Structures
1.
Amino acid sequence: MRDRHDRVGAIEAAIRRSPVTALLGPRQCGKTTLARQVAARRSAIYFDLESPSDRRRLENPELVLGREQRLIILDELQARPELFSVLRVLVDRPERPPRFLVLGSASPALVRGVSESLAGRIEFIALSGFDLAESGSESWERLWLRGGFPRAYLARSLADSVKWREGFIRTFLERDIPQLGITIPAAAMRRFWTMLAHYHGQTWNSSELARSMGLTDKTVRTYLDILTGTFMVRQLQPWHQNLGKRQIKAPKIYLRDSGVLHSLLDLHDRSALLGHPRVGASWEGFAIEQVLAAVRPSEAYYWGTHGGAELDLFFVVNGRRYGVEVKFSDAPATTRSMRMALEDLALDHLWIVYPGEHRYRIDERITAWPLQAIGELPAALRRP
């Protein structure tokens, strides 16, 4: 497995550019490990804001932090949202303002004060668990089954991985969400999260989920936004343009980590996964996450019409339009839906990502691309 030197370099570049660098991602995805690697390369002081002793050290934060000339690392900053206004005061000082690396497991949308306090002063870096570039492309089945959380992926046995994920889900519901000041019963959120796992890869329908749970549309939308803001769920937004066709305008919902998805669906080994009706949806979500990790487009969408045409992933790179269709098949072929997406969206190229071993051109603008070679896709985007 490759280490994360590339990510450490990206963090250090952001620290040089911006007074405050925010490393955001789900709990247990490796943020603290990366931050400590950054600290080892330079003079830095570290505060864990979930540690009682570190919280006591920061009882007078402006005085303590204002004296520092070293890089200041604040881990789990969403536990002390009042510090964002302190950071603004410190980085606006004319004389030798400090640099901050802040770590968080909640998006700015969930932590009040981030955008208002630090607008124009902060750079965000998103971090997830391991991807294929780190696990090695030959390990894609293990990564798919176990997910990318380091402790789940690296567990000594599959049973240990399952146990870790079950503990992660329980801790997330019982501790992490309440620490954000969100008062939702753990049992209700667990039920919603499990139900969402069965809707993985489908278009969001708040009314249907609300009826199933006996809740209001607004309540289930709140639950969805919380799971999105804590990096558990991806809402893939629809792309729509003036085509003279009725296009779908609701997001598609994916659980971002395939291992957590499999735990919520009670799929604990390869045979259970391959025999489950949602195996194709699981593969689709996993492949989409790997494509996004490799390509890193500024924005990504899906596209669909009420007439049945659909494209799993659509993005623009350097002014060129690209599409990705995911197929859990050994020998994928083109479909009428792909042809419609190719023409209606004026795609420069469409890739069919599948679990095979060979890449081959199906059409002048359509290529079958094995997931194992997804790391080479960015180079293909740069070709004329």
2.
Amino acid sequence: MKKNLRIYNITRYLADALAILVAYMVTLLIHFGNFGTGFNGAFLALSIVFWYVLSQVSKLYADRRSNKFSEEIVFITYNTLLLAILLSSALFFLDLTTIYTPRFFWAFLGNIFVAVAAIKYLLRKSVHAALNQGKLYDKILLVGSTPSAVNYYETINKYYYYGYQCVGLIDEQPAKINGCKYYGNISTLGHVLQTEFIDEVVIALPNSDYTNIQLCMEICDYNRTKVRLLPDLQQYASSSISVDNIGMMPTISVRELPLDRWQNKLLKRGFDITFALLVFATVGVVLFPIIALFIKLTSRGSVFFKQERWGLNNQRITCYKFRTMVQESNDVDKDGQYLQARKNDPRVTLIGKFLRKTNLDELPQFLNVLLGNMSVVGPRPHPTPLNIASMHTVDNYMLRHIVLPGISGWAQVNGCRGETRNPGDMQRRVDFDLYYIHRWTFWLDCQIILQTVINIIRGDQNAY
């Protein structure tokens, strides 16, 4: 596995150099009509060198096999923007500004982005295909059978493209985790590492079992095997935490929320206003009258649907949407329970099904963004009855209201959409929302927007 992974990483680097070369030659062909005119080897070499140097800043080559491709696109965009800054300086020092016009320069950068994104997508698909065939896996040995260990084991089995395969379990007491092979107690760890091919040992013992944790780490160090600790910190799973040292003593720091800083608030609000105005000036101008006309032609009632929801600090806001249900539909049943939209819901109109499937019913919420009671990205606001029903049954539910709600969110792009039939469904949604709140970055917002667009084009089975 280590050899294959080394080849894969080398391929990732070399592929980008090839992509930049192709982008340069294509730009020359389009701009000059041939490859010879305007060719400058020094400029091409600097483009490749700058790309690799800047990748250390943007962390472009971090292993993202288990992440969505939209995240990789965000980092490609970031690296391309940084490249634009350095290359513009290179044009001046190489005295190429008269040959390479701004039109050529931006076309070259655009071609780099397209070529790199395409080749990384192909590499990603080839890796997923190899993993599906049982190749390229990291062989994992699990030590401990705590709830964290069970959750870890089930996660890597469910999502094969994470690239991990658990070959067995070691624990002081004979234990079984869904058929995982039991190798014995901790005293057998050294023998297992010497007789089995193990890439990594994941230690998931209780935090109080310090002696055995230290013993396992020493055995792994002796056998030169990589170690990962899986501490019992599930209560902080959604928080932004870091491990620091005071002298020789490790400490866990729970950081402040990113959106508590005024700089980040200003950046997010500026982006929200700009993005909302762009939507109204482009897509909105065309789609708003068309959607309104179809709604009026296919059902009685108003074009827009207004509903009370909870926003920042639990304040009531009026959320705007295109109406997708018949005018006479009820929000609650005869017992006073809130009626969530469900699959094949008879209340949904014909045009409403299309609007919900494509998320176009959410377009009027950009007005909420301009009003300042919603953001483009954030936890989705829930209707008042759903909030009241969930606040006492879902852990940390009210914490999702410490930031502005959004039109799209981290939970939605990770499949948490549609009906929440039980508290477990809502808990998963809230966990994603808290992850977003504690780990917010501008680039994470960009990734969520990009993934939302991809989901609209591809279709979401939970959108109904």
3.
Amino acid sequence: MISLAGRDILHSWGKYLFTGVGLGLLIGVTLSMAGIYRGMVDDARALLKNSGADLWVVQKDTLGPYAEPSSLHDDLYRSLQGMPGVAETGNVTYLTMQAQRQGQDVRVMVVGFEPGHPGEPAHLVAGRPVTRAHYEAVADIKAGFSLNDRVKIRRHDYQVVGLTQRMVSSSGDPMLFIPLKDAQEAQFLKDNDAIVNDRARTTANPALNRPGIPGLLDAIISSQSTNHSVNAVLVRVAKDWESEQVAQGIRRWKHVQAYTLVQMEEILVAKLIATSARQIAMFLVILAIVSAAIVSFIIYTMTLGKIREIAVLKLIGTRDRSIASMILQEALGLGLVGFVVGKSAATLWAPYFPKFVLLETGDTVRGFFAVMLICAIASIVAIRAALRVDPATAIGG
């Protein structure tokens, strides 16, 4: 019956192949959806790994700088540096915004960091690290920047002096690294007009102009032009110390929240992208149902197109099992053609997606068996129709 199924396929191979290509494009979309989810998880893990930190110290009762707003004083690192088990600390800020390059908006995550401390870009693919205190930047190549490009962030222009790779936020936005002081100004300070208005309102406040509180008005006005806040302090744990052990001490004595690498990964994967994961899972279920329906319809239509041939086979004594095997083999062959086309298509168009698409071998293997199972189940309708064919049909008109 293998030759029987093969002969039937060769008889209408053009239609069969075209149908397999159409099914393959649908399978390619399904594999791409799974790859998008894998890419989101990989982006989250890359974000944590590339930070070079073992602990994330953030504002108490928050989930950290990537999931919720967090604000700490930038001198906290000094007291953390003296904690047992702490090897190194680094202040960081994170701000997702639209930067401007040559008049065009580019969505990036602006990271303020201190050179030589946790949080700086670890690997450069071109250029050099940031060496000046102001107005230099290192960008991820996904942002589309080139060396020596000028990027406008808030009120200032920055020169791209280095390029890095796979430095993205949990949502897939490329990172742009600038000095910490510049990032604090971009994130926390008000624009010039707002500062002037606040100073005027402060000066006009009668409660601040009483003789009994000299110097208070000047202090408030001065504070409006400076800011000493960061979103997190990244900590590297000393050798032979457990991250959770150091984190417990920080939580107990510094009244802040400290997350380990495992805990931060849990926050990003289980909380931050959980909704997207459920949505992608729903799409996968819908695509699987649609694929099964399409295969069922195709195989059923192909079977109805050769009712007379099936009747002849039954008339000459061909067993029902052989006829069922022929239809099943054609369905599985259609799934095989579709899967090869779908995997090839997903691999070809994956680099053109705005977000990172990770096509894992395990997902490919599971996808193959799922396609074969769907095709086998979808062939049941056609097999039942073929088995009900009356052999007299071969003789009748």
4.
Amino acid sequence: MENKIPHDLIVTIVNKGDAEKVVDASKKAGAEGGTIILGRGTGIHEQTRLFGIVIEPQKDIVLTLVKRKISDQVLEAIVARAELNKPGRGIAYVIPVERVAGITHLIPEEE
């Protein structure tokens, strides 16, 4: 069964170890949870050198699927808790999701 309720995917990329802050903030703002993926940064501010070798720091990527009606409040909570308004802390962006499957516990039962 396909869920026709509009959803957004909030993608948050933060320094390794900060994913729990993102998940905690999103849950407090109404999200069900999130998926944490390990990545690595390649931006101009991400690379450091150790003994002349370029080191690309690891990143935590948090995928948070939320109903569109709470997307703004969840994003605001993530930005505040992870301090994304400060340089070098990470980024977050929202992608509209057209269809969702596999979240049957969120689909209202038809009468």
